[in-house]
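Hi all, long-time lurker, first post. I run a small reading group and we've been trying to get comfortable going from sequence to structure in the token notation. Rather than ask abstract questions, I figured I'd post a concrete chain and ask someone more experienced to write out its structure so we can walk through it together at our next meeting. Sequence below, copied exactly:
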Amino acid sequence: TVSVLYWDQQKFKKMQVDVSSFVSGTFVGLFVAGAVWRACRYRGAKVTYMGEAADERIKEFHEAAKKLRYVPTWYLAGGVMQTATADFPVVGEVKYEREYLHLEKVSFADSEKYQCCPEEVPEGIVTLDWLKTDNKGPIVVVVPGLTGESSSAYVKRIVRELSLAPEQYQPVVFNPRGRGGVKLVSPFLYSCGYTHDFRRALQHIKKQRPGEKILGVGFSMGANYLAKYMGEEKGKSLIEGACCLAGPVDCPGLMTNLTSGMLGKYFFDPVLTRSLHRVRETVGEIFDKVPHPGVDMNLLKEANTLWKFDDRVTAPTMGCKDADDYYDQSSCKHVLHDISHPTLFMHAENDPIVPAKCLPYESFKRNPHLISLVTVSGGHSMDWPTGHTMYPWSSTVVIEFFKRTQGDRKADQ
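-- Answer (accepted) --
Happy to help. Here is the structure in token form:
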């Protein structure tokens, strides 16, 4: 009896191992098959633009875009995993030469004040990090996302790819107040819709290099205020062509989407809020030394959502009534019709933060200088990783867009 019992136990254990191996093997097989199926299925891209009435350069890019095929990295299943690659380390070195810009205090009359801008902007410091290169092509100003800066991995990747392009682009990264290791000198930060510091940085570049063409690439929040700047300036924009990657366009719609789903409400919203609190911890000292009348630092420390954080610090410093007013004033959707230079908007349907369903597609059809490219996959990665090395496919699109829409055109004087 004991022998039979022992044999049965051994047999049961072996059956357990066999079943476990079968389940694991089946899971891995289904995962791989699913990834391959998605890679094959997710190749097409939805393109939206004015059509035959569009700018000739936009139509030229549209023809080229028909040949662009995005195949996501097979082992990155879904938008969340693809989003996580934005901060994956960069292979190789990217060396910058830093330029500090000390911005003086400025006051605005009501007639000349921009949306999402207070009547008085205190002094501050921003930086321009120029890639060390001997390239002589157009300057490309790179604008990072919410908590990004020149050292962010996705920023380094686009900088490197631009520098290696045949057009010999000269990349420079714009770091707003309090980012890139720069000390905050007044109780005023950056935001999704504030454009005047960026405007002054561009004026500085144009003054120093008057004959050179300036282009722009923006990511996420940076994409929104890059597009907003171009719309505000209309034909006077110093940026002659831009690529806006994974930008919100409609900030109220973004916040609604972010807080309505389980993933956004319980994962991405807390993650982004913690990122902003890390920024607050690095610059909070100046708010204690020079208090802002509309900011209660004790209440700010208790903010546990993006809405509360923006309501307690961003909105009052930007001259907005509350967070909802701030989101509305920040949105570039209000000025898309005024953009006068070729501009590409690129998004992914499975972006968990800025999904393509939030886009105002009709706006892209009303302006001959705009074109929207939407892929099924890509997440909020900024890179659109492809291949087993996760090569940044978005850089291929950016370089192709600039090639087709800029060519050998001389910089506007």
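A couple of things your group might point at:
The chain is about 45% helix and 15% strand.
Confidence is low (pLDDT under 50) at residues 1-7, 409-413.
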